[in-house]
């Protein structure tokens, strides 16, 4: 089975009563399904619906653009995107839009610091796993693992040093003609952060974005609460269920992003093969069920959630010593929950509330 549009974080505000706005502000929400293969929901407080609709329309337009810009499987008229880069950057430098260049530059900068976990240059390996999931979804009887020899061959072409960036020209060149970039570990969170910055400058700075589970909160809700509530998904529960949530976080002006083994996957001989693949083993990682990262920047949260998922819990705790502004919650394979100390202030299990 393959899951693409799963909402693995459940917004408490979507199912709790009494969340009308206070005074002249009212709560409105809008959802759409045409970007990043998932449902995106925007909830915010404005003086009237016309004001909300105008801001939400800008946010949707931006999400559509970033989806097209970071899409590695399709090309779009008038847009030089990651698909264009993968098709042409080994022939000559490809000049790309600022947002795409900055995202790739960030990943190239961070990759040596991620302890051989996330690597956007392992697109060849991830494509083989993507194709295997597609086959398993369309014809479960034909489900099979990617050929290990093919995976190892693709892994010969994922050296990030072969991605050459020209900052003055905003161009990208591949020194290895067989290298392929995949931005899946960060693209959705990075896009959510760009949209959030727009909303913070708009007439609706009090908002929450749920981009298929990548949650970015703005200023607090204008209904008497001091924080937005976000329930973490139980990996074994039905999507959207909050009854068995491992914990609930109450926060504002922060991002909450989870990586888990219950998102995009297929089952073969009783074994779950999900989409988060280790560059070391070339197989999906089985260190834990999920890890949730909390920090301000949604792009960084997205990147680090994948990074931590590819580490053991102990390695992740040590890794985060260098990130004092980042918190994490782990759901381990035995379903026990661990968290960094700086998460206690947000967690219902440690007394946090929305009030």
The sequence of SSEs as H and E is EEEHHEHHHEEHEEEEEEEEHHEE
Rg, Cα atoms, Å: 20 Å
Euclidean distance between termini CA atoms: 40 Å
CATH topology of one domain: T-fold
Annotated CATH architecture of one domain: Orthogonal Bundle
What are the low-pLDDT stretches, counting only 5+ consecutive residues below 50? 1-10, 12-19
Let me know the number of strands: 16
* CATH domain class of one domain: Mainly Alpha
Largest sheet properties: 8 strands, antiparallel
In short:
This protein is an alpha+beta fold and 355 residues long. Helix content is 28%, strand content 22%.
List the helices and strands and how they pair.
Layout (H helix, E strand, L loop, with lengths): L8 E3 L14 E10 L2 E9 L2 H22 L11 H7 L5 E2 L2 H13 L12 H16 L9 H8 L7 E4 L4 E4 L12 H14 L6 E5 L2 E4 L10 E5 L15 E4 L3 E6 L4 E4 L2 E4 L15 E6 L2 H12 L3 H7 L7 E5 L5 E3 L16
Antiparallel strand pairs: 1-9, 2-3, 3-7, 4-6, 5-6, 7-8, 8-11, 9-10, 11-14, 12-13, 14-15, 15-16
Helix pairs in contact: 1-6, 4-5, 6-7
What does this structure look like?
- This protein is globular.
- Helix 4 runs antiparallel to helix 5 and helix 6 packs antiparallel against helix 7 (298-309).
- A hairpin with a 5-residue loop joins strand 15 and strand 16 (337-339).
- The chain has 355 residues and is an alpha+beta fold.
- It has eight helices and 16 strands.
- The protein has a domain at 82-174: T-fold.
- The longest helix is centred in the first third of the chain and has 22 residues, at 49-70.
- The strands form four sheets. An eight-stranded antiparallel β-sheet has the order 2-3-7-8-11-14-15-16. Strands 1-9-10 form a three-stranded antiparallel β-sheet, with no helix packed on it.
- The protein has helices spanning 49-70, 82-88, 98-110, 123-138, 148-155, 187-200, 298-309, 313-319, and strands at 9-11, 26-35, 38-46, 94-95, 163-166, 171-174, 207-211, 214-217, 228-232, 248-251, 255-260, 265-268, 271-274, 290-295, 327-331, 337-339.
- It starts with 8 loop residues before the first strand and ends in a 16-residue tail after the last strand.
């Amino acid at each position: 089975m393959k899951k693409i549009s799963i909402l693995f974080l459940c917004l408490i505000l979507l199912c709790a009563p009494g969340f009308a706005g206070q005074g002249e502000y009212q709560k409105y929400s809008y959802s759409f399904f045409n970007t990043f293969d998932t449902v995106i929901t925007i909830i915010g407080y404005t003086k009237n619906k016309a004001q909300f609709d105008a801001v939400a329309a800008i946010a949707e337009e931006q999400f559509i653009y970033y989806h097209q810009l970071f899409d590695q499987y399709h090309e779009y008229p008038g847009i030089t995107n990651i698909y264009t880069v993968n098709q042409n950057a080994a022939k000559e430098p490809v000049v790309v839009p600022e947002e795409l260049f900055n995202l790739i530059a960030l990943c190239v900068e961070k990759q040596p610091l991620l302890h051989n976990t996330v690597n956007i240059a392992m697109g060849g390996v991830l494509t083989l796993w993507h194709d295997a999931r597609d086959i398993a979804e369309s014809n479960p009887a034909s489900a099979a693992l990617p050929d290990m020899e093919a995976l190892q061959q693709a892994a010969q072409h994922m050296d990030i040093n072969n991605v050459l960036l020209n900052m003055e020209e905003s161009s990208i060149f591949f020194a290895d003609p067989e290298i392929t970039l995949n931005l899946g570990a960060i693209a959705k969170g990075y896009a959510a952060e760009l949209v959030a910055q727009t909303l913070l400058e708009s007439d609706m700075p009090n908002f929450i974005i749920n981009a298929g589970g990548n949650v970015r909160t703005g200023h607090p809700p204008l209904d008497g609460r001091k924080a937005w509530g976000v329930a973490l998904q139980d990996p074994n529960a039905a999507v959207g269920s909050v009854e068995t949530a491992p914990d609930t976080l109450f926060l504002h002006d922060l991002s909450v992003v989870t990586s888990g083994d219950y998102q995009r996957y297929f089952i073969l001989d009783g074994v779950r093969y999900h989409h988060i693949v280790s560059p070391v083993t070339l197989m999906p990682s089985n260190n834990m069920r999920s890890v949730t990262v909390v920090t301000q920047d949604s792009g960084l949260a997205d990147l680090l959630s994948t990074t931590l998922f590819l580490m053991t819990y102990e390695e992740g705790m040590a890794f985060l010593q260098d990130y004092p502004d980042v918190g994490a919650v782990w759901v381990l394979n035995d379903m026990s929950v661990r968290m960094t100390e700086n998460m206690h202030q947000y967690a219902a299990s440690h007394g946090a509330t929305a009030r």
